[in-house]
Amino acid sequence: MNDGFDVVIVGGAVIGSAVAYYLTANPDFNGSVLVVERDPSYAHASTSLSSSSIRTQFSNPINVKVSQYGHEVITNFGEMMEVDGDRPDLNFHPGGYLFLASTPEQAQILRDNHAVQKACGADVDLLERDALADAFPHLRVEDIALASYGRSGEGWFNNTGLMHGFRAKARAQGATFVKDEVTGITRDGARVTAVALASGATVAAGHVVNASGPRAALTARMAGLHIPVEPRKRTIFVFDCAQTPEGTARVNEGRLPLMIDPSGVFCRPEGQYFLSGAPPVEDPAVDWDDFDPRYEEFEEIIWPTLAERSQNFEAIKVVNQWAGHYAFNTLDHNMVVGCHPEVANFVFANGFSGHGLQQGPAAGRGVSELITYGGFRTLDLTEVGFERIVENRPFIEKAVI
């Protein structure tokens, strides 16, 4: 390994690997790239434990456009990431998202969001109660005031496939990946200059990219900086259904979407099973190594909600569960992509709050542009930059799950 690199990326899961790919793919970037990953098995990475879906149904144009680009990358992933004839297939399932609203306030939010989404060219329809019942006859919709349904550009895909595709292509393009841990960052006034590794090495750095997921605050702290990101636990349940409703939809060739109940409980098909989760009643920060599932959420929250929503979900049985971490931005639950205003060569790619997989391609491209050109060239991500953290100015997104 070299004694110095033009860019050192702290964290090698989907965000770090995406940054490495876009840097090494850019003909205007002639530097060297090092990715430092503490656990290349990625057993507890947010990427690996994600439910790995993508949607355009956001309330802010930037988030809509970020996901539209993410869908474009997923659609063309095999061609983009081909290495020695191997074209990774992300097995994209175009099921769409279905948001349900039961109150006038929730319905108005869907209408407002829909106007933004349509202005961005997203393929999203609003469904009144009768249209909803006709499209998805397994649902009980007496309490539903309005629904929002993504007809294309939304679905779910292979989470680790996205990460490994970026990683393999970045390596083929010259990026160096090492198993190690950053234990310190040297700073000389307004610049970071090097990283110290657990192996004992010190590596000079032209730029340092913080792509360390739920550990983002720990990485920033090494450089004397702060970012309001902490690990928040989310438990995912996989359940079997005695009488599956998959195939009963009268749209999208019978495929059911990822449904978000007005309560926040969600579920979607996963092969012969269903995958589900719920916003926790209490949502404290957890230890970085706490991955114990909250088993009670299924019996107390998810099952009762789903059973009320559909007769098909009255007889269901959990077959698997796991807990992962959101890299949760406590300011506004949205990604932070940009340089620190006082330490210009320290770049943040953090705080995705559960949206890292779908936003990874745009974030990786944006960071590569900042480093190569000193500014964004394609999609302007200035609104989600670090300045808003300093100014305590939240970036508002109404459609956060």
From TrEMBL:
GO molecular function, one term: oxidoreductase activity
Sorted UniProt keywords: Oxidoreductase
Domain (FAD dependent oxidoreductase): residue spans on this chain: 6-370
Top-level division of the source organism's lineage: Bacteria
Keyword Oxidoreductase listed: yes
GO-annotated cellular components: cytoplasm
InterPro entries reported in the protein's UniProt record: FAD-dep_OxRdtase (IPR006076), FAD/NAD-bd_sf (IPR036188)
Any Pfam family matching the protein: DAO
Biological process (GO), any one: mitochondrial respiratory chain complex I assembly
PANTHER family in the record: FAD-DEPENDENT OXIDOREDUCTASE DOMAIN-CONTAINING PROTEIN 1, SARCOSINE DEHYDROGENASE-RELATED
Protein name: FAD-binding oxidoreductase
Species lineage: Bacteria, Pseudomonadati, Pseudomonadota, Alphaproteobacteria, Rhodobacterales
